[in-house]
Specification:
The protein has 26 helices and 22 strands. It has 700 residues and is of the alpha/beta class. The radius of gyration is 32 Å and the shape is globular. Keywords: ATP-binding, DNA damage, DNA recombination, DNA repair, DNA-binding, Helicase, Hydrolase, Isomerase, Nucleotide-binding. InterPro entries: ATP-dep_DNA_helicase_RecG, DEAD/DEAH_box_helicase_dom, Helicase_ATP-bd, Helicase_C-like, NA-bd_OB-fold, P-loop_NTPase, RecG/Mfd, RecG_dom3_C.
Length: 700
């Protein structure tokens, strides 16, 4: 009879209620299943036995065979320690215990052969090993022990309560004895054969008790593939269900608005990437499923024109469209740009933000409901209950990561049927992350810049070169250009940041005095109206220098600004540096980004700065950022919950992730309901998986 893996951990021999409570609270282990999926962090090679005269003074973990020849107690400041002399045929060392002496003294015998394992210390001319793992050689040879010893995740509390790595290994052995090491297969024969995977039972045995390094590698591959395969399967199924269940508005035709604009009013030739993305959007809008597409494109790659042309498809089919941006400044900018494009086509467009006058609001609300208003641009103000559309067919959300799920769902409910949705972001998301976190959205990428854009020249300068940088700024201003100087903003030390900004502002004011130069300043402590006023002066060209904290990170478009100076650049993350750099280079002139730092730089900071100087490809930069920071930091906690991975790592196991998505896609393409006999095991596992939130609770 097979053991039920949902059995509470308390019932496993050697655990008991006290240990069970600790394992639950510290590691979240509730059942046999959870224990089997507690995967080791690392392994120690236990194939080698050292002689005492071979030991090096390097604090390494070693194992030695020998005998205890005597015990003594040594007084110390607090209490006493127990010391044993341990000998083999090449020399003598000491074993030391600071606690648990009584038990040690009673259970260890002199003259017997033991195998000890632990970290060595060199002290007072001899080697010692504090709190060694110790067992009789006869026991050691009998145990279900492998050459590579697993080291499990632990916590301080577990160690203090005596649940050592050895204890965890012992209860893991017990679990394998009780289950006879037999586990249900969770992958179909076709994948197993194709990828030459080892069975589920072999993989679990060799992840905990690897017989050889090669079997360990095969076990890790098998379990990583499985974990990623089921995550991808989940995301793709979600996408398919979305498409089959959630009907969208079908835009049957491409009509006069789109064609007239394309033929007569398009301000520049579209890049191939823009044409490709428009085709993808067109196909979505022409199907009867609701569009749910993420549009990624680097700063300045021309996402806005793609968004506008998608709206024209909506208008051609008699629908209204809206575009929601995270800040008032950004929505004003979108409005001004799109208003220019709407004029020659006679399209009605309005702007709605928190500061729109009540009288104007009334007119907007009225025209939305009677259908006279075709396009509405705005901030969160669009989500208010008062804002009702006659027939909203397409909603575009800019900089999606700044809006929560709740806010987006409000947009969906502005209609009987949810509108088609296009989500835009200028934060390049590495492919691996996009596949894992946004795997249920269709993804389009604009990966080329419009013709005539010159790449921004990026340099790294130390604070000691500041005078040269000032001279360069004066030369650029003399040519009629404008300059940003950005200071970091770190929440914990707002006072410090404010001081940095003010000190910077004063030294810039001394170097660039009025009336020859005019400076704007923008920071988080200012009132919104003052911020907007200062921004406005800079946009109009009344000031040549804008000193600011990172409030200008998203979306401000000043084509005449050609120099971005980032102070204390080592305090910024890579994606932030890249976003800031994207604020310049929007006109036809050569633009520059200067990264200023002190001489003291950590290794990660150096990598970030070198990457910025070397590359202007947002996706390459995002990949480096992912390697440096890991997925949690990049996605923010809200999104990265999807990636509570037990064994796979989406940075290091990128290839396995791609492979798993390929198989999941192909299987669902051939057999969307998973009814073929070969896919029975997938369906069973997937159903189990829907019962339990945590992916590993269902996979074994």
């Amino acid at each position: 009879m097979s053991v039920n893996l949902q059995t509470p951990i308390d019932y496993l021999k050697g655990v008991g209620p006290n240990r069970a409570d600790l394992l639950r609270s510290e590691l979240g282990i509730q059942t046999y299943q959870d224990l089997i999926n507690l995967f080791p962090n690392r392994y120690i090679d236990r194939t080698r036995y050292y002689k005492i005269n071979e030991l090096q003074r390097n604090n390494a973990e070693v194992q030695i065979i020998g005998k205890i020849t005597g015990f003594r107690e040594v007084a110390q400041k607090r209490g006493k320690r127990l010391v044993a002399d341990f000998r083999d045929d090449t020399g003598m060392m000491e074993l030391v215990w600071f606690r648990g002496q009584k038990w040690i003294r009673e259970s260890l015998k002199t003259g017997k052969t033991y195998v000890i394992f632990g970290k060595t210390n060199w002290f007072a001319g001899k080697f010692s090993m504090p709190h060694p793992e110790i067992e009789l050689q006869s026991e050691h040879e009998r145990n279900l022990r492998s050459a590579m010893q697993a080291i499990y995740p632990s916590t301080e509390k577990l160690s203090n309560k005596g649940i050592t790595n050895k204890v965890v290994t012992n209860i893991m052995q017990q679990l394998f004895l009780e289950t006879k090491g037999r586990f249900v297969e969770t992958l179909p024969a076709s994948i197993m054969t194709d990828l030459k995977l080892i069975s589920k039972s072999d993989a679990l045995f060799n992840i905990h008790f690897p017989k050889t390094p090669e079997l360990l590698a095969r076990a890790q591959f098998r379990l990583k593939f499985e974990e990623l395969f089921y995550i991808q399967l989940q995301l793709i199924i979600k996408n398919l269900i979305h498409k089959s269940k959630i009907k969208g508005f079908t835009f049957d035709k491409v009509g006069d608005y789109f064609n007239t604009f394309y033929k007569d009013h398009l301000p520049f030739e579209l890049t191939n990437a823009q044409k490709r993305v428009l085709k993808e959007i067109r196909n979505d809008l022409g199907s009867n499923a609701q569009m749910n597409r993420l549009l990624q494109g680097d700063v300045g790659s021309g996402k806005t024109i793609v968004a506008f042309m998608s709206m024209l498809m909506g208008l051609d089919n008699g629908f209204q469209c809206c575009l929601m941006a995270p800040t008032a400044i950004l929505s004003v900018q979108h409005y001004q740009g799109l208003q220019e494009l709407c004029k020659p086509l006679g399209i009605s467009i309005s702007l709605l933000t928190g500061s729109t006058k009540t009288s104007d609001r009334k007119i907007i609300h009225q025209n939305l409901e009677n259908g006279n208003l075709q396009i509405l641009i705005g901030t969160h103000a669009l989500l208010e209950d008062k804002v009702k559309f006659k027939n909203l067919g397409l909603a575009i959300v800019d900089e999606q990561h700044r809006f929560g799920v709740k806010q987006r769902s409000k947009l969906w409910h502005k209609n009987e049927l949810p509108p088609n949705v296009l989500v835009m972001t200028a934060t390049p998301i590495p492919r691996t992350l996009a596949m894992s976190v946004y795997g249920d959205l269709d993804i389009s990428v604009i990966d080329e810049l419009p013709a005539g854009r010159k790449p921004i020249k990026t340099v790294h300068r130390y604070d000691s070169n500041r005078l040269k940088v000032f001279k360069f700024m004066k030369d650029e201003i003399a040519l009629g250009r404008q300059i940003y100087i950005v200071y970091p903003l770190i929440q914990e030390s707002e006072k410090m940041d404010y001081k940095d900004l003010m000190d910077g502002y004063e030294s810039v004011s001394r170097e660039f005095p009025m009336p020859n130069y005019h400076i704007s300043i923008v920071h988080g402590k200012m009132k919104p109206a003052d911020k907007d006023y200062e921004m406005e002066r800079f946009v109009k060209g009344e000031t040549q220098i804008m000193v600011a904290t990172t409030v200008i990170e998203v979306g401000v478009n000043v084509p005449n600004a050609s120099v971005m100076i980032i102070e204390s650049a080592e305090r910024f993350g890579l994606s932030q540096l890249h976003q800031l750099r994207g604020r310049v280079g929007r006109g036809a002139e050569q633009s520059y980004c200067i990264l200023m730092t002190s001489h003291k730089l950590s290794q990660d900071s150096k990598t970030r700065l070198e990457t910025m100087v070397r590359s202007s490809d947002g996706f390459e930069i995002a990949e480096v950022d992912l390697k440096l920071r890991g997925p949690g930091d990049i996605m923010g906690t809200q999104q990265s919950g999807v990636l509570n991975l037990r064994i796979a790592d989406i940075v290091k196991d990128k290839d396995i992730l791609e492979q798993s998505r390929y198989y999941a896609k192909n299987i669902l393409k051939l057999d969307p309901s998973l009814i073929s006999p070969d896919h029975k095991v997938i369906l069973h596992t997937y159903r189990q998986m829907s019962k339990y939130r945590n992916i590993w609770n269902y996979i074994s």
